[in-house]
Amino acid sequence: MNRLWSRVGIRVASVGLLVAGTIAGVYVGKDREVEPSSAPVAQPQLVVQADTTFDEMQVLKERHSQQAADRAYRKQAEDVAAAKAAADAQAAAGKAHTAEKKAIDKKAADEKAAAEKAAKESSSSSSSGSGSSTVDVGPIPSSCKEYSGTRATGCTLMLAEGFGIDQFPCLNKLWNRESGWNPKAANTSSGAYGIPQALPGSKMASVASDWKTNAATQIKWGLGYIEGRYDSPCGAWSHSESTGWY
After folding, report:
1. pLDDT given for residue 183 in this prediction
2. CA-CA distance, 78 to 117, in Å (whole number)?
């Protein structure tokens, strides 16, 4: 009887140990199932951070592209403005050149017409014998003694024409520029000749027939031209200073 209970007790104890082991395994399995579930919790946060970084990079790229486009637009606008300014300046210079050329051409045409008229008048006066062959200069006044040669002649004839001595510095500078007071000075391109650079030189024949060589003839004609067109030698010099011709 005692042996029977001993066997029963051993079997009960064995079953108890088996049940206890099974229960422990269940608990361990539950613990293991719980632990892995804690790691993936961080994954949504990483995904959010990655999405945020990508969005920021996209914004930066778009901003950089916009800034580059703005710079390109500004440069294009500046180039267009510079090109327009250059075109306007060129157009203005062209207009000024055209106006100046017209003025020069008109002056040349007027002088040519006047020369032709003077030549006809000279020819008529020469054929009638009324033209003078020489110009009487007379004695050199004391106010002109500081000058010599053709300048002394010019000073003397200028006073004889009724201009004051204060006008001679202007006349001196004017004809220094035109001919250097050389009665044989010739401009081959325009046809101007003599001390006053008459255009053409033959118009000085209205004073005397020796206009090609006589400084007094040329000076007398030049003074008459200045008085009729500019009132005085200083008026002619002022015009020459502003335009380059008289």
Report:
1. 97
2. 58
